[in-house]
Amino acid sequence: MSASLALVADQPKLVEPLAPAAVPAAEVVVLKFGSSVLRDASQAPAVASEIYSHVRAGRKVVAVVSALAGQTDKLLSEARSLGLDHENELLPAYVVLGEEKAAALVAVACDRVGLDAIGLSVRELGIVAEGPSQHARPVCLKGDHLQRALEAHEVVVVPGFGAVRPNGRVALLGRGGSDLTAVVLAAELGLDRVRLVKDVDGLYDRDPAVSAGTPLRYRRASWDTARQVGRALVQHDAIDLAQARAVEIEVAALGRAEGTVVGDRGAPPGPVQAAAPLKVAVAGCGVVGGGLLSRLLPDSRFEVVGVLVRDPKKKRDVAAPAELFTNDVDALLAKKPDLLLEALSEGEAGHALIRRALEAGCDVVSANKQAVARDPAGLQALADAHGCRVAWSASVGGGSPMIETLRAARAAGPVVGFEAVLNGTVNFMLQRLGEGATFSDALADARAAGFAEEDPSSDLEGFDAEAKVKLLSFEAFGRSPDALPRDVLAAETPLGEAPVRQIGACFDRDGELDAYVRLDGALDDALFLSLNGERNALKVYGQDGRVWTCKGRGAGRWATTESVLADVADVMRARRAAAELV
């Protein structure tokens, strides 16, 4: 159903001002990624995934990164070839370029998946250290640059290893000094824990890579135990400072919730049962399905057992064994996958496939909003009845954690409504149209950018946003509206000169759901007006006056892929927890 923007502008506001609107403060975490994790640039997306999982849970992240593997030695060699010896005070400024380059790389990887990230340099970060230029001792954090960056962004990526001496020159914090950087920042931010992400999932009583017998992992280790068994895994200076500042150290691996907590209390080590790879089937190999395959195939935690497509012989833009592809649903499910990742482009077929997988006892993660919005309550009941899990965060908001934000708001108290920019394709086109592009050019640009499907009618006619409003309504109120008015974006749609956004909303008005998808040219909301391109955003209004928000990339391969993988991580944690109860 079409409506003119002039009529929209004349309508009364559906949301009365909530005074004063309080935004819940976000928890801050400090994560450190060493060169054993950042072996080369190809590992940056995995690091971004780890960061994304924390942002999705409502946290802000300070990510401390080491140089890529081998870069520090390379830089040292280059500097010394010019005659700079070990004690030259100019050497550290050159060496920390490795960390600063890695920080910039990780910030770019975060931006690709839709995170609001910024990278800082060693000097901008402002850790002040005294003593030898190659092994200085941190004494304080100067200035408020880090705090201001955290206030303005979801993720702040900073270089480890480097600091600034009182004379203004750069100093190094000793080998393994990125651990020390992370501990300093956690202490200065008033945190009681820091997480060091390594290539091993904790501290063991012997080196698990080379030792005979069965290595035993510590669930908790005392400071002294960590010094004894940690060897080069955790820098001893970092352990000393953590103990002095009462900051516990978590040692864990990428994508693993469990690890070792180092602190005042210890516990005996125990055996760790190696987890078998999760058997995964993927339905669809388009924008999202192809992105998922590119991440799953090289990851040893997963075994891809099949990919459901219309034409198994069609050439794909992702390298995968030809024998994985099938157009036979029965053959796919006969492989007995543990988890189905459903990324089909058609709602009815996707819904039927999800139901079949759940009935077979297979966990499901879906990015198909048309499939899930048909009956979210029924799908959840079916999953419960068969002892499995269904998740659909990626079906709303792409890389913007809208489902999680709404659940957090509802957990804090009753929700009265929400409004959101929900369709990245339409928002991208509206920006292009506002810049003077013709409708056909704006649509062509959206297709070229990978946001619009060959048939864009679901986006342009508001069906995509309608499905997302229904899903968010289910999360907010436990039910969805049967139908809602939709504005259509077409070549003849009058837009005017003011910025226009497609707004999807639903409010509970005395027990009745008031929902719509509207092209609004009379916005005065700073959050929605700030969105460019394919960015999406959500505002949730609590009954107590609090307002919960999130934003991120709402379309595109990598943003949506990241959201699916975050659901996968949740499913894996739930499966491990269930296995421990058996």
Protein described:
The protein is built from 22 helices and 23 strands. By secondary structure, it is of the alpha/beta class. Helix 2 (about 45-55) crosses helix 5 (about 95-110), helix 8 (about 175-190) runs parallel beside helix 10 (about 235-245) and helix 17 (about 425-435) crosses helix 18 (about 440-450). The chain starts with a helix and ends with a helix. About 50% of the residues are buried. Mean pLDDT is about 90; it is low at about 1-20.
Q: Which helices and strands, and how do they pair?
A:
Elements: H1 5-10, E1 27-33, H2 44-56, E2 59-65, H3 71-81, H4 91-95, H5 97-112, E3 117-119, H6 122-125, E4 127-130, E5 137-141, H7 145-152, E6 155-159, E7 162-164, E8 170-172, H8 177-188, E9 193-198, E10 220-222, H9 223-229, H10 236-245, E11 248-253, E12 259-263, E13 278-283, H11 287-296, E14 302-308, E15 325-326, H12 329-334, E16 339-342, H13 347-359, E17 363-366, H14 369-372, H15 376-385, E18 390-391, H16 402-412, E19 415-421, H17 424-434, H18 439-448, H19 457-460, H20 463-477, E20 501-509, E21 512-520, H21 526-529, E22 535-542, E23 547-553, H22 557-581
Parallel strand pairs: 1-2, 1-9, 2-6, 3-6, 9-11, 10-12, 13-14, 13-16, 14-15, 16-17, 17-18
Antiparallel strand pairs: 4-5, 7-8, 11-12, 19-20, 19-22, 20-21, 22-23
Helix pairs in contact: 2-5, 2-22, 8-10, 11-22, 17-18
